Fold:
Amino acid sequence: MSDPISYAGHEEHHMVHRIGWLRAAVLGANDGIVSTASLVVGFASASAGREDILLAGVAGLFAGAMSMAAGEYVSVSSQSDTERADLAKEAKALKTMPEEELEELANIYKARGVEPETAQQVAEQLMAKDPLKAHARDELGISEVVTARPVQAAVSSAASFSVGAALPLAAAAVSPLEYVAPAVVAASLASLALLGVVAARAGGAKKLRSVARVVVWGAAAMAVTALAGRLFGAVA
Structure:
């Protein structure tokens, strides 16, 4: 459930505050399931032994988790650096050209349909309280809800990748060797469908669309890897 926002008895639940960690967690879990399952299915299709299959899967789990954490941290840090640079530029403009910045803020509200006089009053009141926050939110689109958080994104992505990767590995470990590939595919598709439901519920989105998206792309990735494993296994 999202944090409630209540005004005069009217309460709403929104999910946007979850964007920072939800995107990284869904991406990590999806990548963990698909990449590890594809790796395992590829090795199994190449007629590898169980030890080789599990070793490849475990190696993929650790490598993938670290790669996801590093990638998320670097990419989100870049976003955070850009946000800080823009805020610094805006803070300088507010000190050197406050009148121009006030007019700019008022024009933003006018463009959104607010009456000119009201827009001017709102801009003046917000500028008097916290001018940088007002410009960050309404001019730059930066707010506390969606601001970049590199560490949170990295941890969420690495943890969810590890959980996702563990599912096809578990299927590979318990199924008979000759049925490793179909067992991993079935377990992975079921896991992807569950992930789609959980992600849709956490984000307040439509479940069917979310499930179809992750299952179709996951199945395609595993099919391509299985074909590659079979071809290279036959060549070997």
